[in-house]
Here is the input.
Amino acid sequence: MDTPELVLMILAAAGAVAIFLYLRHRHVERLRARLHSSVEMSGPIQQALDIITKPEVTEAAAVGGVTFVELAWQITLADPSAWEHISSAGALSGAEPLVHTSGLLDSLTQTEALQVFTDMLDNPAADVVAGAAVEGMVDGAASSADAILDASNTGVVFSVPVVTAAFAAYRAWRRSQNGTDPKRNLEFAAVEVVTRAGGGMTGAKAGGVVGTLIAPGVGTIIGTVTGAIAGTLGGAALGEQVKQHHIERSRREFRAALDDLGEHYLTDEARFSKLTGLLAEQEKLAIENVAQTRRRFTNAAVPFRVIWPDEKFVLMQETLKLAELKLAELKQGTADAVTRLQYMRAAGKHHELGAMLWHSQPLIERLNPEPDLLNRLQTSSVRLAYEEAQL
Here is the structure.
């Protein structure tokens, strides 16, 4: 073999090895990047995971699980052989009556779990949850919990309130990390336990009755578990509405104070004139400031600066242009504001004016409202901010 051919073969082999090493390096890097990168999930999958991982959904699923365990335990205690009939094809299709159907229904009717649901419907705690008496909710929750304990006798159905209480404790802990007042936090937890436990147990009772009417046995189990889950979710929605009571009350107080502030300056001729006069004073002050800026620019406009402007002269020129532009906007804004004030006065837009004035603190300071009204505004505003922070 000639030397040139040998050299070419060596170079070709070296090139092939180099290309291989390069491709291998790229392949390994892609694998490493894929290994260390996060898995991107599609929209529907991510939305499904967000729903599943919500504490409310987890709580409802847990309630459904313990309801199934309790009902299964009650059925086993009443008639262990009932499971054979429940799982048989005849029980599912209804082709032939269950051998122990009457005994099973009688035993279900007498079980402590269903008796608790009956007692809960007759218990005054239901009125406490449905009503709007939130101030006594902590005491009402304690008495409701005692009623649940007394009704359960052996405590077999106590797991449903225990599950809701555990999740309520978790939410209370989360709120405490955000600075929620301990007393308000306890009240919210009590509302959650009463509404969710009551809703879950009542829903289980109603679902069990409906399921039994449709398909005794299997329908009883499915209806009870489904009703417990639906009742827990419904109770959660009701509880959240009850918890909004303090915020709604604070909002009404703050809105009433804003209405009074707007009425204060729209219905009284002297105060209305004072308000429009302040707008005119602001425009007059802006005109004077622009005039001063123009005089300073004129004094600085010496011939050599006009011929060859320096940085300071250009800056003053741009400042004057910006001031004149802002003045034109202020004049238009003042005219629009006066027109809007006249419209508010004619239409009785007290709340809109009150909100506009309250969000312009320099204007409020110059208007100097009555001390009682100003104190009401400040107190209701602070209380509303406090209540919003509690949730």
The CA atoms of residues 98 and 119 lie 29 Å apart. The chain has two domains: 49-243, 252-390. Confidence is low (pLDDT under 50) at residues 89-156. The chain has 19 helices and no strands.
